[in-house]
Amino acid sequence: MTEVLFFIEVVVAGLLAGTMYSLVALGFVLIYKASSTFNFAQGAMVFFAVLAFVGFMELGLPFSLAFVVTVLLMVLVGFCTERMVLNPLMNQSEDTLLMATIGLGFVLEGLAQAAWGVEVRRLDLGIGDFPIEWIIDVFGLFVSALDLTAGIVAAVLIIGLALIFKYTRMGLGLRAVADDPGAASSIGIPLKNIMLLVWSAAGVVALVAGMMWGARAGVQFALVDLALKALPVLIIGGFSSIPGAIIGGLIIGATEKVLEVYVGPFFGGAIEGWAPYVLAIFFLLYRPEGLFGEKIIRRV
Amino acid sequence: MEQKVNNKNVFMGYTRSDLTNFLIVMILSFVAIPLLVKTDYWYSSILIPWLCLALAAIGQQIVMGYAGQLALGAAGFMAAGAFACFNLILRVPDIPFFVALGLSGLVAAAFGILFGLPSLRVRGIYLMVATLASQFFIVWMIDKFGWFKNYDTSGIITAQDIVILGKPFTSPLEMYFVILVVVTVLTVLAVNMARGSTGRNWMAVRDMDIAAESMGISLLKTKLQAFAICAFYCGVAGALFAFTYLKSLEPVAFDIKLSFKILFMVILGGLGTISGAFIGAAFILLFPVLLNSIGNNVFHGAIDATIISSIEQVVFGVLIIVFMIYEPLGMAKLWGNIKQRFLRKRSLQ
Amino acid sequence: MTIERNFPIGEPVLEVKNISLRFGGVKAITDSSFSVLKHEIKAIIGPNGAGKSSLLNCINGIYQPQEGSIAFKGEVLGKITPNLIAQKGISRTFQNLALFKRMSVLDNILVGRRLHMKSNFLQVAFQLPKARSEEKANRDKCEEIVDFLEISDIKNTPVGKLPYGLQKKVELGRALATEADFLMLDEPMAGMNVEEKREMCRFILKVNDEIGTTMVLIEHDMGVVMDISDNVVVLDYGKIIADGPPDEVRANQEVIDAYLGVSHD
């Protein structure tokens, strides 16, 4: 019985950790949906946003004000990216855009470190990384409060974004732009505003993801590498699907934890470093468009 | 306007200007530099890592610039080559160094084929993620299985001395010559492939895969071949890098950051040119040196070293964006344009 | 109209039987059969979206038809891939240009010589005599093609920088370089002016006459089609509605309806 409970605990911990990957992946999906651009800099945005947030807190700003200022900063980042990187590269090949966003990632990482230094910061959200007592009492499971909070925050963000996509005029415009930017702008949908909105939304998502990661692992450069794991998440879920980002994150989170706990010890551990990528390769072989992605038909 | 060039083959398919360029580079690198450069610093901190990384960049160039496959795992293949070389010299008595080096390249090539397999199904970012698997897996494997490190627990293993025909090559200048010979040979081979039917097949796959296939090019063979050759070059480069520059073997030296560095060399240097690999490697390597010396000499250390490295990162990032916008073919193309403008001006006079 | 031909029209060389192709729920080709005779020039015509290019893409192995079979030179082809088709001796051009944009004109045409170049990458890397002589022989062959198409002044220009009409010519050159005895040309004259079209027709007829290459071409210009083709297949909504000599097809009521747009219900 305890073994079963332990297994459930491992899976739950993995799922909750997976929501963190989902949060990072969500930022990728937002931008990909709107502009078919694969934003490699999303991981750097996570790092940049949370480092800025901690930096503002250190300047003495209260939590809420620091949050607002950081959001504004991310909107500015989105604005500059749209004007200075994406706009000049319109109609370029996907690979060119991808490389440009790799460059953007380096710029953001460098700027963040130049402005706020390289030392590891602690971020205290007032939520400890310790088991919740009533869950232990009721289910006999150890579930971290921080993990659970991250899960709930992720759920709220995702539902919120899904509603915005579905029911607002902005969301409708966004879907139109995603479908055919030329046609959308020709009927008067403000392409630039929509791109700015999307990049800002991606910035906010990055900030939230960064806060969750930062609270757990400290605000440090390693966040960028953690954010890389959002890539296999996207491959599993499909680049253009919000539910895909969530399910992909959960699959990666749960699988890597289970593998680490049950298989890892035979190989000296640390297989979570590569297991998600190998898992992604298997998905690529059988379902290259991801679980929720649209099937790509190449026309000649 | 077409630039009138002397296309006449003089020797083995090379034009006169090819041969003069080759001769100039050979005299410079084998005679002039050893005569003029006397400080060890230049060899051990600039020339040796430059040549090693340029070799790896040629590999990346072949798979990405020529065959058009977005791969991001050069450092993984370098690690495979480095540790293969270490183990071959350790376990095979009296193995000649160049044989060990070649075999290390082949070991890396085997990994290249294995992790190149996803390229048959996917492209672009998808392929990039798949090749990241090789990066993380290879480094992890070497780290976790004690055999590869000869059960050394300190984490850092000293590389063996390079011994060729009984003579140890241990001074920076001696090692420079060893690397120079390897790099020269492999560069000539790469240029031959790139200009010949092999390179045409790669570029055809890069530019329009369906048309390439319709002309009878096997995508499977061509892509895997490019991955294998890329990994071979990276493997040899990794072995040289470990044995002459790092002088030690540690898996962490071959992390994802090194892969990004090599990717940047190729992008900034210029996709689809062998010379771009050398230009890009020089830039990526020299720019931080320049920045540091500015920090030390102009600001007298007033700027923190971490800030300098952050600035370096920002500059690399900005340059990539700028090149993608204005000259996606990189510095090699820029240099070519300048040269052409200069030649035209001269011919007008 | 019986002019003596160097290569008189012979037996069927390509036989397409009951091909059906669907993309999801959309039917691109329905139960279509036709054959191409040795040494003939066969045109495929039809309104936009009739499935002409899809038909070529099926023969070429880019699309896999759900039903039907394709036989070439009497041999029923199983799983068809573009690579296999090239080896069987069928070459083609593409509707929307599929050139290697960053490569020079000569290099593009040299890729067409792929199946004539047998040396492996090591022989090329070390420039062994076999690789060198092979490279030279094939380069000379491509120079000939470049001269034949009258594009030798641009042979070192990257193809992506050329105007559309010239790119079409380069693509024809690449297909010719394969020396395939069966050539499929997908709208070789699209976007050309009268002058350019006349020139292209001349090349096509010359190749057919001098080398005896069997040709299948898709073309919209009815004048051109009637002038140069021996037989015409008419496709409409993925179905073959006529197949025969140009004069016969021109008189066919169904064809006239299809082109004048009589409603289908």
Please, could you describe this protein's structure?
The complex is a heterotrimer of chains A (300), B (349) and C (265). Chain A is mainly α and 300 residues long. Chain A is built from 13 helices and no strands. Chain A is globular. With 349 residues, chain B is mainly alpha-helical. In chain B, strands 1-2 form a two-stranded antiparallel ribbon. Chain B has a two-stranded antiparallel ribbon with strand order 3-6. In chain B, helix 2 packs antiparallel against helix 9. Chain B starts with 8 loop residues before the first strand and ends with a helix. Chain C is an alpha/beta fold and 265 residues long. Chain C has two domains: 166 residues, P-loop containing nucleotide triphosphate hydrolases (Rossmann fold, 3-Layer(aba) Sandwich); 81 residues, no CATH class. In chain C, 38% of the residues lie in helices and 24% in strands. Chain C contains ten helices and ten strands. In chain C, strand 4 and strand 5 form a beta hairpin. In chain C, helix 3 packs parallel to helix 6 and helix 5 packs across helix 6. Chain C is globular. The termini of chain C are far apart. The mean pLDDT of chain C is 90. The chains are: A mainly alpha (300), B mainly alpha (349), C alpha/beta (265). Chains A and B meet through helix 4, helix 11 and helix 13 of A and helix 5, helix 10 and helix 12 of B.
